């Protein structure tokens, strides 16, 4: 028990990460679209937990707000809007599934080999260790303030481009989804 | 303190599940959700590398990626609704309007 508590950050991260992968599995393999959305919601909440255990508090809360609060509700709206029941008997997987699954498996093996050599090999012990704290973040400067300083000091142009893209997406979504007869 | 290998392994698994979902599912909504899953795996890596380098640049960029993902979901769901109006279903292997 003490051994678990000593390394609690790591254990919580792995727990949340594996739960997120499990939710993603539910998302892929469930027949009903509503069950897929619930799996997606679970996975997003667990990814928010991963962010929190990586000490990115602001991003964890933003993840909860944006994904669990906004995007999942949008997906549920669209699931309710489109009628899916009469197409369920045709099967949920593509016809190329029997080629795609060996392809993904082979990719997993290849990338996993590279991964194992790069991360668990002899020469990769001290290159990839996490720092204890952020550079800009001192005791009286919280995570949100540090992130906003980084955002507005270094990434002001991508921020402005993102605002334009959000505006274009708003207009485009309304134009695409509006019905013809209005 | 979380080790970097665990972060990379978890994000690799999440990304692989997303790719598998995009490749094998027929429902356009599930494909959109799998794309979101892949973007989240990338975000996880951004945050972990920000923690590794000790700067906040990765976290700021992860915030930007989150905004882009929201824009992508809005347009994608509008496309799904428009497709449902046009074809009556959202199965991606039945979208063959360009086939002569």
* Percent of residues in β-strands of chain A: under 5%
The CATH topology of the domain at 1-84 in chain A is Four Helix Bundle (Hemerythrin (Met), subunit A)
Helix content of chain A: over 70%
Q: H/E element string of chain B?
A: HHH
Task: Count the E strands of chain B.
Answer: 0
Low-confidence runs of chain A? none
Morphology call of chain A: globular
Total number of helices of chain A: 7
Strand fraction band of chain B? Answer: under 5%
Order of helices and strands of chain A: HHHHHHH
| Top CATH class of the domain at 1-84 in chain A | Mainly Alpha
Question: Explain this structure to me?
Answer:
The complex is a heterodimer of chains A (182) and B (100). With 182 residues, chain A is mainly alpha-helical. The longest helix of chain A is centred in the middle third of the chain and has 25 residues, at 57-81. Chain A is globular and about 60 Å long. In chain A, helix 2 packs antiparallel against helix 3. Chain A has helices spanning 2-6, 8-29, 33-53, 57-81, 97-119, 143-154, 156-177. Chain A contains 7 helices and no strands. The termini of chain A are far apart. Among the domains of chain A are: 1-84, NADH-ubiquinone/plastoquinone oxidoreductase chain 6, subunit NuoJ (Four Helix Bundle (Hemerythrin (Met), subunit A), Up-down Bundle), CATH 1.20.120.1200; 142-182. Chain B is mainly α and 100 residues long. Chain B has one domain (4-94): Helix Hairpins (Orthogonal Bundle). Chain B has helices spanning 4-24, 28-53, 57-87. The longest helix of chain B is centred in the last third of the chain and has 31 residues, at 57-87. The radius of gyration of chain B is 17 Å and the shape is elongated. The model of chain B has no long low-confidence stretch (mean pLDDT 88).
